[in-house]
Protein backbone atom coordinates (compact mmCIF):
# COMPACT_ATOMS: atom_id res chain seq x y z
CA UNK A 1 0.00 0.00 0.00
CA UNK A 2 1.27 3.42 -0.96
CA UNK A 3 0.92 6.13 1.71
CA UNK A 4 0.72 9.83 0.87
CA UNK A 5 1.79 12.28 3.59
CA UNK A 6 1.15 15.99 3.06
CA UNK A 7 3.44 18.25 5.14
CA UNK A 8 3.42 22.00 5.74
CA UNK A 9 6.29 24.40 6.33
CA UNK A 10 5.37 26.65 9.25
CA UNK A 11 6.99 29.05 11.72
CA UNK A 12 8.83 26.85 14.23
CA UNK A 13 6.77 26.14 17.34
CA UNK A 14 9.43 27.67 19.60
CA UNK A 15 9.32 31.04 17.86
CA UNK A 16 7.32 33.76 19.58
CA UNK A 17 5.47 35.23 16.61
CA UNK A 18 5.24 38.99 16.14
CA UNK A 19 2.36 40.76 14.48
CA UNK A 20 3.50 43.12 11.69
CA UNK A 21 3.09 46.81 12.46
CA UNK A 22 0.84 47.35 9.42
CA UNK A 23 -1.58 44.64 10.58
CA UNK A 24 -1.16 42.61 7.39
CA UNK A 25 -0.05 39.41 9.09
CA UNK A 26 2.72 38.02 11.30
CA UNK A 27 6.43 38.46 10.68
CA UNK A 28 7.79 35.42 8.80
CA UNK A 29 10.94 36.97 7.30
CA UNK A 30 14.15 35.75 8.97
CA UNK A 31 12.18 33.51 11.30
CA UNK A 32 13.06 29.85 11.87
CA UNK A 33 10.74 27.59 9.85
CA UNK A 34 10.10 23.89 10.47
CA UNK A 35 7.76 21.08 9.56
CA UNK A 36 4.35 21.45 11.22
CA UNK A 37 4.69 19.24 14.37
CA UNK A 38 1.47 17.31 13.66
CA UNK A 39 2.75 16.56 10.13
CA UNK A 40 5.98 15.22 11.65
CA UNK A 41 3.82 12.78 13.62
CA UNK A 42 2.06 11.83 10.36
CA UNK A 43 5.40 11.15 8.63
CA UNK A 44 6.54 9.06 11.60
CA UNK A 45 3.34 7.00 11.48
CA UNK A 46 3.81 6.33 7.77
CA UNK A 47 7.41 5.26 8.36
CA UNK A 48 6.27 2.89 11.12
CA UNK A 49 3.62 1.44 8.79
CA UNK A 50 6.39 0.81 6.25
CA UNK A 51 8.66 -0.75 8.87
CA UNK A 52 5.78 -3.02 9.88
CA UNK A 53 5.33 -4.08 6.26
CA UNK A 54 1.88 -2.49 5.88
CA UNK A 55 3.06 0.38 3.68
CA UNK A 56 5.25 -0.18 0.65
CA UNK A 57 6.05 3.36 -0.43
CA UNK A 58 5.79 6.77 1.27
CA UNK A 59 5.28 9.85 -0.87
CA UNK A 60 5.49 13.22 0.90
CA UNK A 61 3.90 16.33 -0.57
CA UNK A 62 4.12 19.98 0.32
CA UNK A 63 2.17 22.87 -1.17
CA UNK A 64 4.15 26.07 -0.75
CA UNK A 65 7.18 28.14 -1.71
CA UNK A 66 10.50 26.80 -3.05
CA UNK A 67 11.87 26.70 0.51
CA UNK A 68 9.32 23.97 1.37
CA UNK A 69 11.88 21.66 -0.29
CA UNK A 70 13.75 21.75 3.04
CA UNK A 71 10.63 20.48 4.81
CA UNK A 72 10.31 17.70 2.25
CA UNK A 73 14.01 16.77 2.70
CA UNK A 74 13.37 16.48 6.45
CA UNK A 75 10.54 14.03 5.74
CA UNK A 76 12.77 12.09 3.32
CA UNK A 77 15.46 11.92 6.03
CA UNK A 78 12.86 10.49 8.45
CA UNK A 79 12.20 7.66 5.98
CA UNK A 80 9.87 8.81 3.19
CA UNK A 81 10.79 7.50 -0.27
CA UNK A 82 10.13 10.42 -2.57
CA UNK A 83 8.72 13.92 -2.51
CA UNK A 84 6.52 16.24 -4.54
CA UNK A 85 6.61 20.01 -4.15
CA UNK A 86 3.56 21.82 -5.46
CA UNK A 87 5.26 25.16 -5.85
CA UNK A 88 3.26 28.34 -5.22
CA UNK A 89 3.92 31.64 -3.46
CA UNK A 90 0.22 32.14 -2.74
CA UNK A 91 -0.80 31.79 0.92
CA UNK A 92 -2.94 28.72 0.34
CA UNK A 93 -6.15 28.04 2.26
CA UNK A 94 -7.13 24.50 3.35
CA UNK A 95 -9.73 24.13 0.57
CA UNK A 96 -7.14 24.95 -2.10
CA UNK A 97 -4.62 22.56 -0.54
CA UNK A 98 -7.27 19.83 -0.39
CA UNK A 99 -7.98 20.34 -4.11
CA UNK A 100 -4.26 20.12 -4.95
CA UNK A 101 -3.94 16.96 -2.85
CA UNK A 102 -7.01 15.45 -4.53
CA UNK A 103 -5.36 15.96 -7.94
CA UNK A 104 -2.20 14.25 -6.65
CA UNK A 105 -4.15 11.39 -5.07
CA UNK A 106 -5.79 10.75 -8.44
CA UNK A 107 -2.31 10.51 -10.02
CA UNK A 108 -0.59 8.56 -7.27
CA UNK A 109 -3.47 6.33 -6.11
CA UNK A 110 -2.35 5.88 -2.47
CA UNK A 111 -4.23 3.49 -0.18
CA UNK A 112 -3.97 5.89 2.75
CA UNK A 113 -3.34 9.60 3.28
CA UNK A 114 -1.98 10.62 6.70
CA UNK A 115 -1.52 14.26 7.64
CA UNK A 116 -1.42 16.44 10.76
CA UNK A 117 -4.78 17.35 12.29
CA UNK A 118 -3.96 21.04 12.16
CA UNK A 119 -1.18 23.42 11.15
CA UNK A 120 0.16 25.51 14.02
CA UNK A 121 0.20 28.72 11.95
CA UNK A 122 -3.40 29.22 10.76
CA UNK A 123 -4.81 26.68 13.30
CA UNK A 124 -7.56 25.77 10.81
CA UNK A 125 -7.93 22.01 11.39
CA UNK A 126 -9.66 21.52 8.00
CA UNK A 127 -7.41 20.08 5.29
CA UNK A 128 -7.75 16.36 6.07
CA UNK A 129 -11.52 16.50 6.43
CA UNK A 130 -11.81 18.54 3.21
CA UNK A 131 -9.60 16.12 1.28
CA UNK A 132 -11.67 13.15 2.47
CA UNK A 133 -14.85 14.99 1.39
CA UNK A 134 -13.53 15.81 -2.08
CA UNK A 135 -12.36 12.22 -2.62
CA UNK A 136 -15.55 10.70 -1.18
CA UNK A 137 -13.40 8.80 1.32
CA UNK A 138 -13.87 8.13 5.02
CA UNK A 139 -12.00 10.24 7.56
CA UNK A 140 -10.34 9.33 10.84
CA UNK A 141 -9.49 12.62 12.49
CA UNK A 142 -7.46 13.34 15.67
CA UNK A 143 -5.94 9.85 15.60
CA UNK A 144 -4.08 8.46 18.60
CA UNK A 145 -3.85 4.92 17.14
CA UNK A 146 -4.00 3.58 13.59
CA UNK A 147 -4.29 -0.10 12.67
CA UNK A 148 -4.57 -0.91 8.96
CA UNK A 149 -5.42 -4.44 7.77
CA UNK A 150 -7.64 -6.27 5.26
CA UNK A 151 -8.77 -3.24 3.28
CA UNK A 152 -9.80 -1.39 6.42
CA UNK A 153 -8.24 0.91 8.96
CA UNK A 154 -9.24 1.18 12.61
CA UNK A 155 -8.60 4.67 13.93
CA UNK A 156 -8.76 5.53 17.64
CA UNK A 157 -9.69 9.19 17.91
CA UNK A 158 -9.19 11.74 20.70
CA UNK A 159 -12.65 13.18 21.32
CA UNK A 160 -13.98 15.56 23.96
CA UNK A 161 -15.06 12.91 26.46
CA UNK A 162 -12.20 10.44 25.93
CA UNK A 163 -11.42 8.07 23.06
CA UNK A 164 -13.48 6.64 20.22
CA UNK A 165 -12.57 3.99 17.67
CA UNK A 166 -14.00 4.01 14.16
CA UNK A 167 -13.38 1.66 11.26
CA UNK A 168 -12.93 3.13 7.78
CA UNK A 169 -12.92 1.51 4.38
CA UNK A 170 -9.62 1.98 2.59
CA UNK A 171 -8.61 4.20 0.92
CA UNK A 172 -9.13 6.75 3.67
CA UNK A 173 -7.74 9.93 5.20
CA UNK A 174 -6.30 9.94 8.73
CA UNK A 175 -5.28 13.07 10.65
CA UNK A 176 -2.66 12.73 13.38
CA UNK A 177 -3.11 14.01 16.91
CA UNK A 178 -0.38 14.61 19.45
CA UNK A 179 -0.23 11.19 21.04
CA UNK A 180 -0.17 9.03 17.92
CA UNK A 181 3.60 8.59 18.25
CA UNK A 182 6.84 10.39 19.02
CA UNK A 183 8.60 11.36 15.80
CA UNK A 184 12.21 10.24 15.40
CA UNK A 185 15.14 12.53 14.76
CA UNK A 186 16.72 11.98 11.38
CA UNK A 187 20.23 10.54 11.70
CA UNK A 188 23.12 12.18 9.86
CA UNK A 189 23.54 9.28 7.38
CA UNK A 190 19.79 9.46 6.64
CA UNK A 191 20.00 13.22 6.12
CA UNK A 192 22.82 12.60 3.60
CA UNK A 193 20.81 9.84 1.90
CA UNK A 194 17.72 12.07 1.73
CA UNK A 195 19.60 14.52 -0.49
CA UNK A 196 19.68 11.86 -3.21
CA UNK A 197 16.03 10.85 -2.97
CA UNK A 198 13.77 12.05 -5.83
CA UNK A 199 11.99 15.40 -5.38
CA UNK A 200 9.67 16.42 -8.17
CA UNK A 201 8.29 19.95 -8.57
CA UNK A 202 4.91 20.74 -10.12
CA UNK A 203 2.63 23.78 -10.07
CA UNK A 204 -1.04 24.05 -9.08
CA UNK A 205 -1.73 25.19 -12.68
CA UNK A 206 -0.26 21.99 -14.09
CA UNK A 207 -2.61 20.06 -11.79
CA UNK A 208 -5.54 22.18 -12.97
CA UNK A 209 -6.22 23.66 -9.53
CA UNK A 210 -6.99 27.31 -8.79
CA UNK A 211 -5.41 28.18 -5.42
CA UNK A 212 -6.62 31.79 -5.21
CA UNK A 213 -7.74 32.46 -1.61
CA UNK A 214 -11.49 32.65 -0.98
CA UNK A 215 -11.24 34.50 2.31
CA UNK A 216 -9.99 38.04 2.68
CA UNK A 217 -7.85 38.76 5.73
CA UNK A 218 -8.79 42.31 6.65
CA UNK A 219 -6.28 42.64 9.47
CA UNK A 220 -4.15 40.77 11.97
CA UNK A 221 -3.78 42.21 15.45
CA UNK A 222 -2.18 41.35 18.77
CA UNK A 223 -4.49 39.75 21.32
CA UNK A 224 -5.43 41.74 24.41
CA UNK A 225 -2.61 41.44 26.91
CA UNK A 226 -3.25 40.09 30.35
CA UNK A 227 -1.62 41.99 33.19
CA UNK A 228 0.20 40.09 35.88
CA UNK A 229 -1.57 40.46 39.22
CA UNK A 230 -0.18 40.21 42.71
CA UNK A 231 1.74 37.62 44.71
CA UNK A 232 0.10 36.45 47.89
CA UNK A 233 2.19 35.29 50.86
CA UNK A 234 0.12 32.26 51.93
CA UNK A 235 -2.95 30.11 51.30
CA UNK A 236 -5.07 32.00 53.85
CA UNK A 237 -4.52 35.30 52.03
CA UNK A 238 -5.23 33.63 48.70
CA UNK A 239 -8.56 32.23 49.85
CA UNK A 240 -9.46 35.55 51.45
CA UNK A 241 -8.74 37.43 48.19
CA UNK A 242 -10.75 34.93 46.14
CA UNK A 243 -13.69 35.30 48.50
CA UNK A 244 -13.76 39.03 49.20
CA UNK A 245 -11.92 40.65 46.27
CA UNK A 246 -12.47 38.43 43.23
CA UNK A 247 -15.70 36.92 44.64
CA UNK A 248 -15.29 33.69 42.69
CA UNK A 249 -15.54 31.17 45.53
CA UNK B 1 -31.93 33.42 4.94
CA UNK B 2 -31.89 31.51 8.23
CA UNK B 3 -28.84 30.08 9.99
CA UNK B 4 -28.35 26.36 10.57
CA UNK B 5 -26.54 25.09 13.67
CA UNK B 6 -25.44 21.50 14.13
CA UNK B 7 -26.23 20.45 17.71
CA UNK B 8 -23.65 18.48 19.72
CA UNK B 9 -25.17 15.79 21.93
CA UNK B 10 -25.00 12.15 23.04
CA UNK B 11 -28.59 11.23 22.03
CA UNK B 12 -29.79 11.94 25.58
CA UNK B 13 -28.39 15.34 26.52
CA UNK B 14 -27.63 18.45 24.52
CA UNK B 15 -24.01 19.52 25.15
CA UNK B 16 -23.69 22.98 26.75
CA UNK B 17 -21.35 23.98 23.88
CA UNK B 18 -24.33 24.22 21.53
CA UNK B 19 -25.91 26.98 23.63
CA UNK B 20 -22.76 29.06 23.07
CA UNK B 21 -22.96 28.53 19.30
CA UNK B 22 -26.58 29.75 19.43
CA UNK B 23 -25.37 33.01 21.04
CA UNK B 24 -22.82 33.50 18.28
CA UNK B 25 -25.52 32.89 15.66
CA UNK B 26 -27.82 35.42 17.38
CA UNK B 27 -25.24 38.10 16.51
CA UNK B 28 -25.75 37.37 12.81
CA UNK B 29 -29.33 38.58 12.97
CA UNK B 30 -31.39 35.90 11.19
CA UNK B 31 -33.65 33.07 12.23
CA UNK B 32 -31.79 30.19 13.85
CA UNK B 33 -32.56 26.55 13.08
CA UNK B 34 -30.91 23.86 15.18
CA UNK B 35 -30.27 20.45 13.61
CA UNK B 36 -30.29 17.46 15.94
CA UNK B 37 -28.99 14.42 14.07
CA UNK B 38 -29.03 11.32 16.23
CA UNK B 39 -30.75 8.08 17.11
CA UNK B 40 -33.75 8.20 19.46
CA UNK B 41 -32.69 11.77 20.06
CA UNK B 42 -36.12 13.31 20.71
CA UNK B 43 -35.09 14.31 24.28
CA UNK B 44 -32.20 16.30 22.79
CA UNK B 45 -34.56 18.05 20.37
CA UNK B 46 -36.77 19.01 23.33
CA UNK B 47 -33.82 20.54 25.17
CA UNK B 48 -32.70 22.32 21.98
CA UNK B 49 -36.17 23.82 21.52
CA UNK B 50 -35.81 25.58 24.88
CA UNK B 51 -32.75 27.64 23.86
CA UNK B 52 -33.53 31.34 23.53
CA UNK B 53 -33.30 32.56 19.93
CA UNK B 54 -33.98 29.21 18.26
CA UNK B 55 -36.85 29.50 15.75
CA UNK B 56 -37.05 25.83 14.84
CA UNK B 57 -35.45 22.51 15.71
CA UNK B 58 -34.89 19.97 12.95
CA UNK B 59 -34.69 16.38 14.14
CA UNK B 60 -33.11 13.76 11.90
CA UNK B 61 -33.56 10.48 13.72
CA UNK B 62 -31.74 7.57 12.15
CA UNK B 63 -29.33 4.81 13.19
CA UNK B 64 -26.72 6.33 10.85
CA UNK B 65 -26.47 9.43 13.09
CA UNK B 66 -26.14 7.63 16.44
CA UNK B 67 -22.40 8.25 16.80
CA UNK B 68 -22.16 11.55 14.88
CA UNK B 69 -19.86 9.99 12.27
CA UNK B 70 -18.61 12.75 9.96
CA UNK B 71 -19.55 11.09 6.67
CA UNK B 72 -23.34 10.60 7.16
CA UNK B 73 -23.81 13.80 9.23
CA UNK B 74 -21.99 15.89 6.59
CA UNK B 75 -24.12 14.33 3.85
CA UNK B 76 -27.26 15.30 5.79
CA UNK B 77 -26.08 18.88 6.37
CA UNK B 78 -25.18 19.32 2.70
CA UNK B 79 -28.62 18.08 1.64
CA UNK B 80 -30.32 20.93 3.54
CA UNK B 81 -27.60 23.64 3.51
CA UNK B 82 -28.76 25.40 0.34
CA UNK B 83 -31.60 27.12 2.22
CA UNK B 84 -29.19 28.72 4.72
CA UNK B 85 -26.80 31.67 4.79
CA UNK B 86 -24.60 30.11 7.48
CA UNK B 87 -23.85 26.62 8.80
CA UNK B 88 -22.46 26.78 12.34
CA UNK B 89 -21.32 24.39 15.03
CA UNK B 90 -19.49 24.72 18.32
CA UNK B 91 -15.78 23.95 17.88
CA UNK B 92 -16.08 20.64 19.75
CA UNK B 93 -14.59 17.38 18.52
CA UNK B 94 -17.82 16.79 16.56
CA UNK B 95 -18.01 20.27 15.01
CA UNK B 96 -14.32 20.22 14.09
CA UNK B 97 -14.71 16.80 12.49
CA UNK B 98 -17.90 17.42 10.52
CA UNK B 99 -17.92 21.04 9.34
CA UNK B 100 -14.77 21.07 7.16
CA UNK B 101 -16.26 18.10 5.33
CA UNK B 102 -19.47 20.08 4.79
CA UNK B 103 -17.53 23.14 3.56
CA UNK B 104 -15.55 21.11 1.01
CA UNK B 105 -18.70 19.39 -0.28
CA UNK B 106 -20.29 22.84 -0.72
CA UNK B 107 -17.05 24.15 -2.30
CA UNK B 108 -16.76 27.01 0.18
CA UNK B 109 -13.98 28.14 2.50
CA UNK B 110 -14.42 27.44 6.18
CA UNK B 111 -13.80 29.74 9.12
CA UNK B 112 -12.64 27.82 12.19
CA UNK B 113 -12.97 28.70 15.83
CA UNK B 114 -14.36 32.25 15.67
CA UNK B 115 -14.05 34.41 18.79
CA UNK B 116 -16.11 37.39 17.56
CA UNK B 117 -18.75 38.21 14.96
CA UNK B 118 -17.91 41.51 13.24
CA UNK B 119 -20.72 41.28 10.69
CA UNK B 120 -22.63 38.55 8.87
CA UNK B 121 -19.61 37.86 6.61
CA UNK B 122 -16.70 38.98 8.82
CA UNK B 123 -15.31 37.19 11.85
CA UNK B 124 -12.36 37.29 14.25
CA UNK B 125 -10.41 34.12 14.87
CA UNK B 126 -7.21 33.34 16.75
CA UNK B 127 -4.15 32.15 14.79
CA UNK B 128 -0.70 31.02 16.00
CA UNK B 129 -2.18 29.53 19.18
CA UNK B 130 -3.91 32.79 20.04
CA UNK B 131 -0.76 34.90 19.67
CA UNK B 132 -2.48 36.86 16.89
CA UNK B 133 -6.10 37.56 15.99
CA UNK B 134 -7.11 37.58 12.31
CA UNK B 135 -10.20 39.36 11.00
CA UNK B 136 -11.42 37.45 7.94
CA UNK B 137 -14.18 38.11 5.47
CA UNK B 138 -15.95 35.48 3.37
CA UNK B 139 -17.78 36.16 0.11
CA UNK B 140 -18.92 32.53 -0.29
CA UNK B 141 -22.69 31.98 -0.65
CA UNK B 142 -22.79 29.83 2.51
CA UNK B 143 -20.52 30.62 5.46
CA UNK B 144 -19.37 27.49 7.26
CA UNK B 145 -18.14 28.44 10.73
CA UNK B 146 -17.13 26.78 14.00
CA UNK B 147 -17.49 28.79 17.19
CA UNK B 148 -15.07 28.94 20.11
CA UNK B 149 -17.52 28.40 22.93
CA UNK B 150 -15.59 30.36 25.56
CA UNK B 151 -15.91 33.55 23.49
CA UNK B 152 -19.72 33.61 23.61
CA UNK B 153 -22.16 33.38 26.52
CA UNK B 154 -24.52 30.41 26.62
CA UNK B 155 -28.01 31.11 25.30
CA UNK B 156 -30.57 30.88 28.12
CA UNK B 157 -33.17 28.12 28.31
CA UNK B 158 -36.30 30.25 27.85
CA UNK B 159 -38.08 29.19 24.71
CA UNK B 160 -40.30 26.54 23.21
CA UNK B 161 -39.49 26.34 19.53
CA UNK B 162 -41.31 23.85 17.29
CA UNK B 163 -39.58 20.55 16.45
CA UNK B 164 -39.81 19.33 12.87
CA UNK B 165 -38.64 15.98 11.53
CA UNK B 166 -36.28 15.88 8.58
CA UNK B 167 -35.61 12.79 6.52
CA UNK B 168 -32.29 10.99 6.75
CA UNK B 169 -30.20 10.88 3.57
CA UNK B 170 -28.34 7.89 2.17
CA UNK B 171 -25.38 6.95 4.42
CA UNK B 172 -22.17 6.99 2.34
CA UNK B 173 -21.21 3.84 4.32
CA UNK B 174 -17.53 4.74 4.49
CA UNK B 175 -17.12 4.40 8.23
CA UNK B 176 -18.53 2.57 11.20
CA UNK B 177 -18.39 3.05 14.95
CA UNK B 178 -16.43 0.39 16.87
CA UNK B 179 -16.18 1.52 20.49
CA UNK B 180 -15.76 4.45 22.85
CA UNK B 181 -13.87 4.78 26.12
CA UNK B 182 -15.31 7.81 27.81
CA UNK B 183 -13.89 9.11 31.06
CA UNK B 184 -16.46 8.75 33.80
CA UNK B 185 -16.63 11.66 36.16
CA UNK B 186 -19.11 13.15 38.58
CA UNK B 187 -17.44 16.52 38.14
CA UNK B 188 -18.58 19.14 35.64
CA UNK B 189 -17.23 19.04 32.10
CA UNK B 190 -14.00 21.02 31.69
CA UNK B 191 -15.30 23.40 29.04
CA UNK B 192 -18.53 24.11 30.93
CA UNK B 193 -17.24 24.34 34.51
CA UNK B 194 -17.38 27.59 36.49
CA UNK B 195 -14.13 26.68 38.24
CA UNK B 196 -11.25 24.63 36.81
CA UNK B 197 -8.31 23.37 38.84
CA UNK B 198 -5.44 22.00 36.75
CA UNK B 199 -2.24 20.19 37.58
CA UNK B 200 1.05 20.11 35.72
CA UNK B 201 4.30 18.21 35.77
CA UNK B 202 4.84 19.50 39.30
CA UNK B 203 2.16 17.07 40.51
CA UNK B 204 4.83 14.34 40.06
CA UNK B 205 2.35 11.46 39.68
CA UNK B 206 -1.20 10.58 38.72
CA UNK B 207 -1.93 9.57 42.33
CA UNK B 208 -1.14 13.09 43.50
CA UNK B 209 -4.01 14.42 41.35
CA UNK B 210 -6.15 13.23 44.26
CA UNK B 211 -4.95 16.38 46.07
CA UNK B 212 -6.63 18.45 43.35
CA UNK B 213 -9.73 16.29 43.14
CA UNK B 214 -10.70 16.73 46.79
CA UNK B 215 -10.49 20.50 46.41
CA UNK B 216 -12.38 20.35 43.09
CA UNK B 217 -15.19 18.41 44.77
CA UNK B 218 -15.47 21.00 47.55
CA UNK B 219 -15.68 23.82 44.99
CA UNK B 220 -17.77 22.02 42.35
CA UNK B 221 -14.84 22.41 39.97
CA UNK B 222 -13.58 20.42 37.00
CA UNK B 223 -10.06 18.98 36.99
CA UNK B 224 -7.70 19.68 34.09
CA UNK B 225 -4.04 19.18 33.30
CA UNK B 226 -1.18 20.59 31.27
CA UNK B 227 0.20 18.77 28.26
CA UNK B 228 3.28 17.85 30.30
CA UNK B 229 1.12 16.08 32.88
CA UNK B 230 -0.80 14.21 30.18
CA UNK B 231 2.36 13.25 28.29
CA UNK B 232 3.84 11.96 31.55
CA UNK B 233 0.81 9.66 31.85
CA UNK B 234 -0.52 11.21 35.08
CA UNK B 235 -4.05 11.66 33.64
CA UNK B 236 -5.94 10.81 30.41
CA UNK B 237 -5.67 13.03 27.32
CA UNK B 238 -9.15 14.51 27.66
CA UNK B 239 -7.93 16.39 30.76
CA UNK B 240 -5.59 18.48 28.64
CA UNK B 241 -6.09 22.23 28.62
CA UNK B 242 -4.16 24.07 25.92
CA UNK B 243 -3.70 24.84 22.27
CA UNK B 244 -4.07 21.21 21.27
CA UNK B 245 -6.40 20.25 24.10
CA UNK B 246 -9.44 21.99 25.45
CA UNK B 247 -9.93 25.74 25.46
CA UNK B 248 -11.46 26.86 28.75
CA UNK B 249 -12.48 30.25 30.14
CA UNK B 250 -14.01 29.64 33.58
CA UNK B 251 -14.61 32.28 36.22
CA UNK B 252 -11.73 30.84 38.22
CA UNK B 253 -8.77 28.87 36.86
CA UNK B 254 -6.30 27.45 39.37
CA UNK B 255 -2.99 26.30 37.85
CA UNK B 256 -1.02 24.06 40.20
CA UNK B 257 2.54 23.01 39.40
CA UNK B 258 2.14 24.32 35.85
CA UNK B 259 5.02 26.38 34.46
CA UNK B 260 2.87 28.17 31.88
CA UNK B 261 4.13 27.12 28.44
CA UNK B 262 2.64 29.15 25.56
CA UNK B 263 0.68 26.11 24.47
CA UNK B 264 -1.01 25.86 27.89
CA UNK B 265 -1.68 29.61 28.15
CA UNK B 266 -3.45 29.44 24.77
CA UNK B 267 -6.05 27.21 26.39
CA UNK B 268 -6.83 29.18 29.55
CA UNK B 269 -5.72 32.81 29.32
CA UNK B 270 -9.27 34.08 28.78
CA UNK B 271 -10.32 32.82 32.22
CA UNK B 272 -11.79 35.58 34.39
CA UNK B 273 -9.55 35.04 37.41
CA UNK B 274 -6.33 33.02 37.27
CA UNK B 275 -4.52 31.64 40.32
CA UNK B 276 -1.07 30.10 40.03
CA UNK B 277 0.60 27.94 42.65
CA UNK B 278 4.19 27.09 41.80
CA UNK B 279 7.41 26.80 43.75
CA UNK B 280 9.41 28.44 40.94
CA UNK B 281 8.80 32.15 41.26
CA UNK B 282 10.22 32.70 37.76
CA UNK B 283 7.55 30.44 36.17
CA UNK B 284 5.85 32.23 33.22
CA UNK B 285 2.41 31.30 34.61
CA UNK B 286 2.84 34.14 37.14
CA UNK B 287 2.86 36.66 34.26
CA UNK B 288 -0.82 35.93 33.54
CA UNK B 289 -1.98 35.11 37.08
CA UNK B 290 -4.16 37.52 39.05
CA UNK B 291 -3.04 35.84 42.26
CA UNK B 292 0.26 34.04 42.48
CA UNK B 293 1.41 31.89 45.37
CA UNK B 294 5.05 30.82 45.41
CA UNK B 295 4.88 27.65 47.45
CA UNK B 296 5.44 23.90 47.48
CA UNK B 297 2.15 22.53 46.17
CA UNK B 298 2.32 19.50 48.48
CA UNK B 299 2.16 21.90 51.41
CA UNK B 300 -0.22 24.44 49.84
CA UNK B 301 -2.88 22.04 48.53
CA UNK B 302 -3.81 20.45 51.88
CA UNK B 303 -4.00 23.95 53.36
CA UNK B 304 -6.21 25.07 50.50
CA UNK B 305 -8.43 22.05 51.00
CA UNK B 306 -8.93 23.06 54.64
CA UNK B 307 -9.53 26.72 53.82
CA UNK B 308 -12.21 26.48 51.13
From TrEMBL, chain B:
Q: Which InterPro entries match?
A: DHS-like_NAD/FAD-binding_dom, ETF_a/b_N, ETF_a/FixB, ETF_alpha_N, ETF_asu_C, ETF_asu_C_CS, Rossmann-like_a/b/a_fold
Required co-factor(s) are: FAD
Electron transfer flavoprotein alpha/beta-subunit N-terminal domain location: 3-181
Which Pfam families does the UniProt entry name for this protein? ETF, ETF_alpha
Query: What are the BP-aspect GO terms?
Result: fatty acid beta-oxidation using acyl-CoA dehydrogenase
Cofactor: record remark: Binds 1 FAD per dimer.
Q: Which GO terms describe its molecular function?
A: electron transfer activity; flavin adenine dinucleotide binding
Q: Which UniProt keywords apply?
A: Electron transport, FAD, Flavoprotein, Transport
**What positions does the entry give for FAD binding?**
201, 226-227, 240-244, 257-264, 278
Subunit record text: Heterodimer of an alpha and a beta subunit.
State its role. The electron transfer flavoprotein serves as a specific electron acceptor for other dehydrogenases. It transfers the electrons to the main respiratory chain via ETF-ubiquinone oxidoreductase (ETF dehydrogenase).
The record's family statement is: Belongs to the ETF alpha-subunit/FixB family.
**What is the recorded name of this protein?**
Electron transfer flavoprotein subunit alpha
Amino acid sequence: MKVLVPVKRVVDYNVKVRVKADGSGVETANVKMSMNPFDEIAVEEAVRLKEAGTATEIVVVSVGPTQAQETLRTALAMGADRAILVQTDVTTEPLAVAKVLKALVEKEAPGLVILGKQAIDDDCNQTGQMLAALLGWGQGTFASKVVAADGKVAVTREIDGGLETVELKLPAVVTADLRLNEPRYASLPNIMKAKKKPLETVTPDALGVDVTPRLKTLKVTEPAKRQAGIKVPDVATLVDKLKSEARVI
Amino acid sequence: MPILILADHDNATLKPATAHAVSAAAKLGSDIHLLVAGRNAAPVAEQAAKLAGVAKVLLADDAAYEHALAEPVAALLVSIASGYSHVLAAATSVGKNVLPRVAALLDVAMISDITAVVSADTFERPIYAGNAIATVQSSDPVKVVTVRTTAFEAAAAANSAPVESVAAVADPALSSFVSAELSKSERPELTAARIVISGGRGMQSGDNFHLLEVIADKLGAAVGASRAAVDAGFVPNDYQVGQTGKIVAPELYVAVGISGAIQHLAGMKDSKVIVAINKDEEAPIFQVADYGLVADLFKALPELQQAV
